[in-house]
TrEMBL record:
Protein name: ABC transporter permease
InterPro entries: ABC3_permease_C, MacB_PCD, Macrolide_Exporter_MacB
Subcellular localization, as worded in the UniProt entry: Cell membrane
Taxonomic lineage from the root: Bacteria, Pseudomonadati, Bacteroidota, Chitinophagia, Chitinophagales
Species whose genome carries this gene: Danxiaibacter flavus
Bilayer topology annotation: Multi-pass membrane protein
Domain ABC3 transporter permease C-terminal: 307-421, 702-811
Pfam families in the record: FtsX, MacB_PCD
UniProt keyword annotations, A-Z: Cell membrane, Membrane, Transmembrane, Transmembrane helix
Length: 819
């Protein structure tokens, strides 16, 4: 029987090559997109699924309010780890993760032929201070040494890859005992080697310095190991709860620690702080608690990807249903004869489901061929560390097989029911019944076609709206100059005299318009807040204010305009402030000049307001403009900002100028790397996620239009075939080719217009909801919908014209002879 099914299916495919090709390609595109998205989602959800007792592992995080503004932090005060170990019950393991500060320039003492100089590795990533408990919570394989070796200070455990990098000619078992020097000051001894973790994990660290080292060096002060009311992004903490210990019990004890050691943590309703436990399986997805240097997967984006996969798959299935039911009249006699010969309806249903499975299997094989090309096309949007292997990841093949059967059932079940429902007596007596039956089912094809193009239209509108918002964000006046400005930093332990020498040298370069030494640029991805108090008689106004500082050239270099007063004067310490207009309004001054000479309390000192500057966006357009102060602080100004002179078209003066800046930099800091960035590129990087969404929507739109157009092409091919004689008669009676094309196209254009009208509310709601995430956003313009609708009508007309024009130009004599 299976052999008969196979032969019948093959004959039917050969007989209807065009329709089979459309079905296979439509399904293949949908399946390929579905497989790729499955690979992405599988990659993201595979993080940290391998740890022993992973359901008992939690990261301690903080929720807080500052002046009523909610905040979240993955970092915690450094002394919390020891306090938990000594005072909290029900905690089995305490795992501090203290990220190495600075550049982590590592010197490895490895003898070189003819030289005693050590090999220098600069800016090594993934270096942490931690305790032996770290290794008891993770499945590391020890190649040398043990976790107990980290109990002593000045010990380090390396992963195998890092050990081979540092000591390439030494056997693994001989590496323990070797010495490593961190930042020219801290000497540690290798005490163990572990095999690198092969699984996807948050814990991607490569070097593990003993936690006890911090307390035996000046790092104790740098890491603020005794400070409870402040913390750094470098300081994170994981714990593993004992059996029977609940999260609520532990969080209650943590609240007690906070109350004991930081009495001002919860002084009023607008200023609060609390510790909470974040489950390990939430660490990779929760943007509120993004760890230092760690990438976060956005669940909303993953859900969007899955929705795109489902829609593309549905579009392919709709094509199959439409074309199969449209062709049902051509197989009516076959079904009648089969039933007359004794075939049951069940057998006929299985026959057609088998044919669908055969076509879907071909589509699945074709989709696997598409995958490498899709991976290449989507490489910008793939998560870091993403890879796939059909051999090394058998779950992928299992997914493809299951998907093939599911798609076969979804695409083939309804057509099989329709075809198997024909009554053999009526079918063999007359074709009229079948045609009537076809007419009754035509409404379904129209509904499905409308649904297809509604999805495609939705994607088109969404793509245009996202592109419009991105254009708005990149071209909006942010309140400062962003073009032709580069910035770079210098070592934080450098002397002020060295910075002055470099400043003067850069200032003398002909291609430099202006140079400033200061803090971060006006707009950054994160935030730098400080507490400032304003006393107005008996009233005290305290709030978190964004801080910027630099020399007097900082504001004019970025073309930040003054509304009242003057710029700051050069100073080693902050002695006066320029505030922004938003802060002036917050303090109650409607006229900027009224804020001049008022006193702000900063670091227990009274600082006068000497100027009010124009508001500018300090972060991306997702955030509103808030209070800001700017002061002169030369002692901590480790960032250089350089405005380049305008570049003449066709010349490369900027490259020449930057090379000269690098030359001067290396004269002052010969052992340091010169890493610069253009300010406008940093601004553009704020919207990387939005650009990724735009790119994915563009791909989804293109694929949905392609699949829908293939289905439309198939339907117009069937329509022209079924109306061949009608077209011939109309031409004989004098109809022009244009009139015939209009007749054939009219019904389909109506369906596209209906699809457009249906998609408008859904697209408007989705785009409006997405735009709510921006504090400053573009308008929902009517022309976006008009252009999108017109575009889809043009696409539909072009698709229809391929076949309708051919039919309209055909010889009517041949048309009338068609049986």
């Amino acid at each position: 029987m299976m052999r008969n099914f196979f032969k019948t299916a093959l004959r039917n495919i050969v007989r209807n090559k065009s329709f089979a090709a459309i079905n296979v390609v439509g399904l293949a595109i949908g399946i390929a997109a579905c497989i790729l998205i499955f690979l992405i989602v599988f990659h993201e959800y595979s993080f940290d699924r391998f740890e022993r007792d992973g359901d008992k592992l939690y990261r301690v995080v903080m929720d807080m309010k500052f002046s009523g503004n909610a905040g979240h932090s993955a970092a915690v005060p450094a002394p919390l780890a020891n306090a938990i170990q000594q005072e909290v019950t029900g905690v089995e393991k305490t795992i501090p993760l203290m990220q190495f500060q600075g550049d982590a320039t590592i010197k490895v003492s490895v003898p070189k032929a003819g030289s005693s100089d050590p090999v220098v590795y600069k800016k090594q990533p993934e270096v942490i201070f931690t305790s032996p408990d770290y290794f008891s919570a993770l499945s590391y394989k020890w190649l040398a040494g043990s976790a107990a070796t980290l109990q002593k200070p000045f010990a380090v455990v390396l992963t195998e890859s890092r050990a081979k990098q540092y000591f390439p000619s030494t056997a693994i078992e001989n590496i323990p005992g070797k010495e490593i020097i961190y930042d020219d000051t801290m000497r540690v001894t290798v005490s163990g080697i572990v095999k690198d973790l092969s699984q996807n994990t948050f814990f991607s660290y490569k070097e593990f310095v003993s936690y006890a080292t911090i307390f035996n060096t000046s790092l104790k002060h740098n890491f603020m190991m005794d400070v409870w009311d402040d913390w750094m992004a470098y300081s994170q903490l994981f714990i593993r709860l004992s059996n029977g210990t609940s999260v609520t019990q532990t969080e209650t004890q943590l609240a007690g620690l906070l109350k004991k050691y930081n009495k001002n943590a919860n002084k009023d309703d607008k200023n609060t702080m609390s510790f909470r436990l974040q489950p390990l399986n939430d660490v990779h997805f929760n943007e509120n608690y993004q760890g230092f240097g760690k990438l976060i997967a956005h669940k909303t984006s993953l859900y969007g990807l899955m929705a795109i996969a489902v829609f593309l798959l549905i579009l392919g299935c709709i094509n199959f249903i439409n074309l199969t039911t449209a062709q049902s009249s051509q197989r009516a006699k076959e079904i009648g004869i089969r039933k007359t010969m004794g075939s049951s309806r069940k057998q006929i249903v299985l026959q057609f489901l088998g044919e669908t499975l055969f076509l879907t299997a071909i589509a699945s094989v074709l989709s696997l061929i598409f995958i490498p090309f899709l991976v290449q096309a989507f490489k910008e949007y793939l998560p870091e560390g993403f890879h796939y292997s059909f051999i090394g990841q058998p779950l992928i093949l299992v997914f493809v097989v299951l998907l093939t059967f599911v798609v076969s059932f979804l695409a083939g079940f309804y057509p099989a029911l329709v075809l198997s429902g024909y009554k053999p007596v009526l079918v063999l007596k007359s074709q009229v019944f079948v045609e009537s039956h076809q007419t009754q089912k035509a409404w379904l094809r129209k509904v499905l076609t409308v649904f297809q193009f509604s999805i495609a239209q939705f994607f088109v509108i969404a793509t245009v709206m996202v592109g419009k918002q991105i254009h708005y964000t990149l071209n909006k006046d942010l309140g400062f100059k962003k073009d032709a400005i580069i910035s770079f930093d210098v070592p934080r332990d450098t002397a002020k005299s060295n910075r002055s020498v470099l400043l003067n040298a850069i200032n003398d370069i002909p291609g430099v318009q202006m140079v400033s030494n200061g803090f971060l640029p006006p707009a950054v991805e994160g935030a730098a807040f400080t507490d400032i108090l304003y006393v107005d008689g008996k009233n005290e106004v305290k709030t978190d204010v964004q801080l910027r500082y630099g020399d007097p050239n900082y504001l004019p270099l970025y073309n930040i305009k003054m509304l009242a007063g003057r710029n700051v004067t050069a100073s080693d310490t902050i002695k006066e402030f320029v505030i922004n207009e938003a802060y002036a309004r917050f303090l109650g001054f409607q006229n900027p000049a009224d804020a001049l000479n008022k006193q702000l309390v900063f670091n227990k000192k009274n600082i006068p307001i000497v100027g009010v500057m124009n508001d500018f966006n300090m972060q991306s357009l997702h955030a509103k403009i808030g209070p800001m102060v700017f002061g002169a602080l030369d002692d901590r100004s480790f960032f250089f900002h350089v405005a380049l002179r305008p570049q003449i078209a066709g010349q490369h003066t900027w490259q020449t100028t930057i090379k000269e800046i690098e030359k001067q930099f290396r004269k002052v800091y010969p052992d340091k790397d010169f890493d610069y960035s253009f300010f406008d590129e940093k601004i553009a990087a704020f919207y990387k996620n939005e650009k990724n969404i735009s790119g994915l929507l563009t791909w989804a739109t293109g694929l949905s239009i392609l699949i829908s157009s293939l289905g439309l092409l198939g339907l117009i091919m069937y329509t022209t075939f079924a109306r061949t004689k009608e077209i011939g008669i109309r031409k004989v009676l004098g109809a022009t080719a244009a009139q015939i094309v209009g007749i054939l196209s009219k019904d389909f254009v109506k369906l596209i217009v209906i699809a457009f009208l249906i998609s408008i509310p859904a697209a408007w709601w989705a785009a409006n909801k997405w735009l709510q995430d921006f504090a400053y956003r573009t308008e929902m313009s009517w022309w976006v919908f008009a252009i999108s609708g017109l575009f889809m009508i043009v696409v539909a007309l072009v698709t229809i014209s391929f076949q309708s024009v051919k039919a309209a130009m055909a010889n009517p004599v041949r048309s009338l002879r068609t049986e």
